[in-house]
């Protein structure tokens, strides 16, 4: 019998991966290897592997058991009730594909933004769910939509083609990677491209600004780029490396609620690698002065 692949390796993750990282890895790989999109011979097998890996790692109880016992935790007759410690499973056929959907005490399972691992079929086939008519009536077709960072921050409109029709989707300001937008009879999952300067943490923005060590020592005022344009930031004398300044209310608008997040500016102090003879003399004078006072701090 072939040895099963490590679930973390299948998703390209380490064992320290967060729940959000696990979800993002699954969504990316599931779309990449979906057999209706990917026509290679390996696609169907890869698709089943990533789905199975996510089904285990996204459930805290299953993940704990897998981390402790590996694949043996889910073998027939493992500790727990018959059929494994985590309940039964539904199996069946959907077109050319076989699926297995494990249940956990009758509760629903979060499959990376899809209601189940094969709701992704609806994104490509537009057909019903393989899990029965009662679940199918509750499920909506899901599409992914890529937008850039600023579109997510400020909102806007995107023209897309769905079911052969060109339609306009309104993007609300403040959506984030993985946000789901209800659009007519569909759900749209947003994929936000990263920004070269800004990092986002919820409604907050984080950026880094470089200043010279003399500017840090003497203080300086300069323009800082934010998502809404440039603002003045005053750096007081004696600012230390990695000091963080908060620009209140300069972050992203809250998607659910009023107000905005904040913008945090991390200061990086640059030390010159090449000095002129005169610059070295001046620094040596500063060092002599420091020695007399024993400390600048």
Descriptive overview:
The chain has 297 residues and is an alpha+beta fold. The chain has helices spanning 7-10, 19-33, 43-57, 60-69, 120-125, 133-138, 149-154, 213-218, 277-293, and strands spanning 89-94, 97-102, 141-147, 156-162, 165-171, 180-183, 186-192, 199-201, 204-212, 220-226, 229-235, 244-247, 263-270. 29% of the residues lie in helices and 28% in strands. Helix 2 (19-33) packs antiparallel against helix 3 (43-57). Strand 4 and strand 5 (165-171) form a beta hairpin. A 4-stranded mixed β-sheet has the order 8-9-13-12. Residues 76-137 have low confidence and may be disordered.
Summary, kept brief:
This protein has 297 residues and is α+β, with helices and mostly antiparallel strands. The chain has three domains: 1-112, Orthogonal Bundle (Helix Hairpins); 140-194, HSP40/DNAj peptide-binding domain, CATH 2.60.260; 199-273, HSP40/DNAj peptide-binding domain (Sandwich), CATH 2.60.260.20.
């Amino acid at each position: 019998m072939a040895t099963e692949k490590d679930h973390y390796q299948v998703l390209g993750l380490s064992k320290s991966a967060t729940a959000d990282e696990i979800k993002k890895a699954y969504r990316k790989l599931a779309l990449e290897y979906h057999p209706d999109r990917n026509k290679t011979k390996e696609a169907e097998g890869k698709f089943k592997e990533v789905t199975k890996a996510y089904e285990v790692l996204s459930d805290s109880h299953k993940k704990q058991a897998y981390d402790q016992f590996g694949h043996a935790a889910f073998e027939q007759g493992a500790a727990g009730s018959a059929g494994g410690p985590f309940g039964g499973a539904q199996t069946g056929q959907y077109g050319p594909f076989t699926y297995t959907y494990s249940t956990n005490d009758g509760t629903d399972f979060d499959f990376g933004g899809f209601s189940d691992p094969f709701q992704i079929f609806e994104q490509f086939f537009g057909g019903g769910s393989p899990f029965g008519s009662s679940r199918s009536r509750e499920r909506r077709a899901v599409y992914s939509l890529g937008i850039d960072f600023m579109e997510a921050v400020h909102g806007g409109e995107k023209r897309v083609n769905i079911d052969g029709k060109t339609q306009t989707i309104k993007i609300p300001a403040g959506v984030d990677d993985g946000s789901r937008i209800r659009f007519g009879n569909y759900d749209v999952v947003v994929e936000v491209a990263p920004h070269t300067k800004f990092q986002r943490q919820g409604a907050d923005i984080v950026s880094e600004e470089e200043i010279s060590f003399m500017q840090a020592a003497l203080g300086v005022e300069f323009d800082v780029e934010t998502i809404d344009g440039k603002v003045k930031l005053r750096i007081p004398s004696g600012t230390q490396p990695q000091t963080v300044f908060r620009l209140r209310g300069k972050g992203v608008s809250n998607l659910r609620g009023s107000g905005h997040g904040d913008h945090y500016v991390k200061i990086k102090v640059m030390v010159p690698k090449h000095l002129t003879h005169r610059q070295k003399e001046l620094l040596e004078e500063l060092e002599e002065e420091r020695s007399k006072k024993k400390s600048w701090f």
